[in-house]
Structures are given as C-alpha cells and as structure tokens.
Design goal:
Radius of gyration: 47 Å
Largest sheet: 6 strands, antiparallel
Distance between the termini: 138 Å
Structural class: alpha+beta
Number of helices: 12
Oligomer: single chain
Number of strands: 6
Length: 308
C-alpha cells in the first residue's frame, strides 16, 4: 500500500513541475599551475637555507635576507661579466690575422726538371722510384742494373731498359697508330686470344701502354679494366740515352707475367720498325688504323709467330 502511494505521489510531482531543473553547485577554483610550481620551489629553497642566509646577512652587516639577495645579485652579475672577458682574452685558439692582399699576385715558383710533377693526377714520375740527381752521375750500365734490381722483388712487376734510338722509333709509330691488337697464343694448343693495346702520353716525360682483353673491350669500351699497364720514363733519355720502363700485371685478370712479357715483345717488334720499312707488320698497323677491310687476323697471327 505504501509503495503504491509513493509511486502515485512521485507521478503527481513530475506532472506538476515539468522542465524544472535544480541548480548544481560547484566549489572548484582555477589556479595558475606554473605560478604555484615556480613559487613553491623557490619558497622551499629559501626556507631550507633561510637560517644560513640569516647568518650570512648578519656577517655582511645586512638587516635582512632580502638585502643579502640584492647585494649578491649585483656581485654575481659582475662576476659573470668578468669571467666572460677572461675567457675571450685567454682563448687557447686565437683568431688568425686577416689575410693581406698585395696589389699583384705572386708569380708561380720555378722548379727544376728533377722536381716536375705529372700533369695527370696519380701518375708517378721517375723521381718517385729513384733519386734523379744521383742517378745522373752513374754510367748507363749501372743505371740499368739498379733499375732491374729495383723491381726484382715484385713477382707481378715488369721492367726493361730501352736505348733512346729504339724508343724514338716506337714513339713515332705509336703517335700514328695509338691503337692496335696483338695475338697471344695458348701454350700446347693452336688457339689463342686477341688483346687490345692503347698508347697515351699523359706528360712530356711519360708514355703509357695498357693491354686489355679484346672481348672485354668490345663489351665495356672505355670502362673495361686492363690487365697490364706499362709506363715509360723519358727523364734520362737526353743525358744518358736510356728510357726506363716499368709495368704491373694485375692478378686474377687471366694473364700471367710471362704472357705479358710476350705482348711487350710483340709490341716492340711491330712498333720499332726502321724508317721505310715495308714489312707486313707496318702494313697491318696502317690497315688497322684506317679500318681497312683488307686487314686479316690470320696475317697478324703469322707475323706474330715470326717473332719466336
């Protein structure tokens, strides 16, 4: 019975006061957290050392801690300025003096022939291997002995000494025919390989020859990797009548040191022909340089076999 009356009273109250809302009271307050955090930390530090600050103020003859803060604030600022000045004056790395420009640029220093540097970066001159000033005082035979002994310890090294007359004939032909091919017969078989050679003259006292597999050169062109490099040094040609040659055979390129020597021997025979030579070797050089269809690989092999 009581439940029914309470339910009826609740329904009547809802019908009599439609849409009436009772206000909700809130007691929350907004505070600036940054303000409280900053001042609480400062106050905590001050309270922690207040007794010591009072003693220090008394020793300094000051009436309060606030006066002590004011005095030391000025002292701290002065100390910072003094420390900054000392740091700049006592720097272990003083700034360099400003450059002085003259009205005229200085001329390039003169150099002696023995101190010449190659025009091509990375190219070693004869002075990189021997002392030129001391070598010029030696006889040709002793120079040849020292040069061969200089390269005897390297198993992949090549060296030779050419008379200047022989080299001049080779150089004259090389400038006319800087590219050529040479056969390399296989031992114990009738077959062989063809190798492509390239001459260059990167410096006045230097000539180079590189040998590359012809098949690789056809495939990669100028990006192909040579297996043998030869450098001829001309610094002693006028004074001693000698041209010193040295070279290197790259390991793992399919050519041995003995095979590289064979290619150098063929090069000398093809390029060191006498003036007015009408042999088949000169004709093959001219046909190859001109791209003549009359050039026969069989004739090249026959001429190479005559060298043996």
């Amino acid at each position: 019975m009581f439940a029914r009356r309470f339910g009826a009273f609740e329904n009547i109250s809802r019908q009599c006061t439609p849409g009436v809302r009772f206000p909700q009271r809130r007691w929350a307050q907004v505070h600036d957290v940054r303000f409280h955090v900053t001042h609480q930390q400062t106050d905590s530090v001050t309270e922690k050392y207040r007794e010591k600050l009072r003693r220090k103020a008394a020793q300094e003859g000051l009436a309060s801690v606030d006066e002590l803060k004011t005095v030391y604030k000025t002292r701290i600022q002065e100390q910072k300025e003094r420390a900054s000045t000392n740091t700049q004056s006592q720097s272990p790395y003083p700034p360099p003096p400003p450059p002085q420009r003259s009205a005229n640029f200085p001329s390039a220093p003169t150099s002696s022939p023995s101190s010449k540097r190659p025009a091509t970066p990375g190219l070693k001159t004869l002075s990189s291997y021997i002392d030129l000033s001391k070598t010029l005082a030696l006889p040709p035979k002793e120079i040849e002995y020292i040069w061969r002994l200089r390269h005897a310890s390297s198993p992949t090294s090549l060296c030779a000494v050419l008379p200047s007359t022989t080299y001049l004939r080779i150089q004259q032909t090389a400038r006319k025919h800087p590219h050529f091919i040479l056969p390399l017969p296989h031992e114990g078989s009738s077959g062989g390989e063809i190798h492509f050679l390239q001459w260059s003259f990167p410096a006045p006292d230097t000539a180079t020859v590189v040998f590359t597999h012809l098949a690789e050169y056809k495939l990669r062109g100028e990006f192909s990797q040579p297996h043998t490099t030869i450098i001829m040094h001309l610094e002693l040609m006028k004074e001693k009548g000698l041209v010193l040659m040295q070279g290197q055979v790259l390991e793992g390129r399919g050519v041995s040191v003995e095979q590289a020597r064979w290619l150098i021997l063929c090069l000398q025979k093809f390029y060191a022909g006498e003036e007015g030579d009408q042999s088949g070797r000169k004709r093959l050089l001219e046909q190859f340089s001109q791209g003549d269809e009359a050039f026969k690989l069989e004739e090249l092999v026959d001429e190479a076999e005559k060298i043996i």
